[in-house]
Specification:
Helix content: 55-70%
Strand content: 5-15%
Radius of gyration: 62 Å
Number of domains: 3
Distance between the termini: 136 Å
Order of helices and strands: HHEEEEEEEHHHHEEHHHHH
Shape: flat
Largest sheet: 4 strands, antiparallel
Length: about 475
């Protein structure tokens, strides 16, 4: 308000002043927003901008933009940013039971130092695969890659190469591991292999062989030095004796005495020289004998170590083959057992289904028979006995047919009866009794009706009555 009053007293238009204030406010706001969205990348981090970040050289949409050691403006709404930490990560890799080219399992404990790569392209891989992942998770991913590559490298090298040519082994590990780490955006900083051991003791045997060889070479060198020293000492003694002999011969007066002394000195000198030569040769032979003895001893130790190694190798091969065969037999036995179980289950299910089907069929037949019998009883006026008689009367023809079938094929002309002429109680002969009994095998209709609880109609004949039979009730029922 004071500003407007001041402007009014100075003769300025309030609307123009208001517009000027709005423009200044917008400029300040824009400047603040720009400054707040401008991000600088520290030297120990990688700035990753994601969102709409433009296109790549091949025309495809870029997933992220990586900046190391610079700064960039982050557009609001369409872009966001995060940092990748470049701090090195130390990973302890204790590789156990890795199979070498000779099928010998070795332990290679080592420590790897890795970190996010700042190389173009590799840094893009890190932004795509490691952004937002915790340090422990990145270490676990790198550890899995290192384990796989080390096992692959050890499988292509002999124990001698891994143990003696350590530079070649480390170079192969560094090359293969770094190639795989670059795929996820990491770089290999350092590799440190602490020690290499094997379960069969082959590396220890190699060390013992090398130590024995070094000791043998040192002993040979010492013997050679002693031999040279002995020879030099003998020559020095000889020169000293010659000088003394010459001095004594010059001091002796007289030419003859001097000559005698010189001759004697010469003889003594030659004798001493022979003795010295003899001692030197003896010392040399003794040194050679000792060197050869130690060499043979070293060779024997080496042969014993090699024999132990061959035995361990053969045992390892046999054990591995035996384990594989054992596993194979176990799998085959499990497969056969599973097959037998499934066949038994299938047969049991089939038997159960068959029995259920038969039971259902029998139940259906019985239900149909019960339903038919119920209708038959209803048709007989509700009398079950009358219904039974109706059923027997319906089957009477079939019963008679079955009884007749028993004798219908009997050929009378083929039967021979020996008749003795004797008469039975009824006055009949043997032949007559046979024919009568044959025809009686077919029951009369009256007997069939009696068995069914019925009576023949009167027009078919009057049935025989039993004097002792009980009079049937005259209720109009079927007899």
């Amino acid at each position: 308000m004071k500003l407007f009053l001041t402007a009014a007293t100075m003769g300025m238009n309030p609307a123009v002043l208001l517009l000027t204030c709005v423009v200044v406010l917008l400029v300040l706001t824009t400047l603040i927003v720009i400054l707040s969205r401008y991000r600088k990348c520290p030297s120990d981090k990688v700035l990753v901008i994601y969102g709409k970040v433009g296109t790549a050289q091949d025309g495809s949409q870029r997933s992220a933009k990586c900046i190391h050691g610079g700064a960039a403006f982050i557009w609001p709404v369409i872009q966001a940013y995060e940092y990748l930490d470049l701090t090195p990560m130390s990973i302890q890799v204790d590789l156990r039971n890795a199979l070498s080219k000779q099928n010998i399992r070795v332990d290679v404990p080592s420590r790897f130092t890795v970190g996010i790569s700042t190389e173009n392209g590799v840094m893009q891989n890190a932004a795509e695969r490691l952004l937002g992942i915790k340090i422990d998770e990145i270490k676990q991913i790198a550890e899995d890659i290192i384990f796989g590559q080390m096992r692959l490298i050890i499988a292509t090298m002999d124990i001698e190469e891994i143990n003696s040519d350590r530079d070649k082994f480390l170079e192969a590990v560094s090359s293969n591991v770094e190639t795989e780490l670059k795929k996820i955006g990491l770089r290999l900083i350092n590799v440190n292999v602490t020690d290499i051991t094997d379960e069969s003791g082959y590396i220890v045997a190699l060390g013992q062989e090398a130590a024995a060889k070094a000791i043998n070479d040192a002993k040979i060198s010492v013997a050679e030095a002693e031999r040279v020293g002995a020879i030099g000492s003998a020559e020095a003694e000889r020169d000293r004796r010659i000088s003394v002999s010459k001095s004594n011969s010059e001091a002796i007066t007289g030419e003859n005495e001097a000559k005698a002394l010189i001759a004697e000195s010469d003889a003594l000198r030659r004798e001493k020289e022979a003795e010295a030569q003899k001692r030197a040769v003896a010392a040399e032979n003794i040194a050679k004998a000792r060197a050869e003895e130690e060499s043979y001893e070293a060779k024997r130790a080496a042969e014993e170590a090699r024999a132990h190694f061959e035995q361990a190798k053969l045992e390892a091969d046999v054990i591995i083959k035996t384990e594989i065969e054992k596993k194979k037999l176990e799998l085959e036995a499990e497969a056969k057992a599973e097959q037998v179980r499934r066949m038994a289950k299938g047969e049991a299910d089939a038997t159960l289904l068959k029995m259920q089907a038969e039971a259902n069929g029998a139940k259906e037949i019985l239900m149909k028979q019960a339903e038919g019998f119920r209708e038959l009883v209803q048709s007989a006026g509700g009398e079950a006995n009358d219904a039974i008689r109706l059923m027997i009367a319906d089957k009477l023809e079939e019963v008679t047919r079955i009884q007749v079938e028993a004798i219908k094929n009997l050929q009378i002309d083929k039967i021979t009866v020996w008749d003795s002429g004797a008469k039975s109680d009824g006055g009949k002969g043997t032949t007559a009794d046979f024919i009568s009994g044959l025809y009686k095998s077919v029951p009369p209709l009256t007997e069939l009706f009696d068995m069914a609880g019925m009576q023949l109609p009167e027009y078919l004949g009057t049935p025989k009555t039993d004097a002792n039979a009980i009079e049937a009730p005259s209720d109009g029922g079927t007899k």
